[in-house]
Amino acid sequence: FDSNATTDPGTTVNVAHVDGPNTASDTMSGGTYWFHLRACDNAGTCSEAQHSGPYRIDASAPSNPSSLASTSHTISEFSNDPSITMAWSGAGDDSGSGVAGYSVVVDETSNTQIDTSIEVPHIDGTSVHNWTSSDLGNGNSYYFHLRTCDAAGACSATVHRGPFMIDVSPPTDPSEVSSSSHETGT
Q: Which among 164, 158, 163 is positioned nearest to 65, based on CA atoms?
């Protein structure tokens, strides 16, 4: 294995032949690689080199968005909107496989570590991605959690935003109304 498409593997036997499938493996960091093979007999006569590839390895997680904020709520302020809309931009994957999408969750815990399922697919050429929650419960504080995942299955660390506080109930009517400066007329 190496990063050149046409490397000559030489005539040294690196893997002894066995009956059944023969295998070879190597540990590589991220990058693009080719496999090179030549069969040699016991007399030292070898076949032409065979080349297979490219095999692309993306061994690192993508970056999270550089911009992540709610477009519907302000952190630590009550809102009468029962659903939270989040917007983000700037996620990337310099390792080659590209951003596949985003794992997102809204809950009542400030530091939830979320799984790698993709709820919001990444759309190339879109500068801003958006997501809106379902209607959430009244009187609670909520947190938004996001992970960026690449096409190779690697995901970034979880980022968190919040608390977003929701209050959609009207206040109760006062039980008694009076005026200290005026008497009620009959």
A: 158
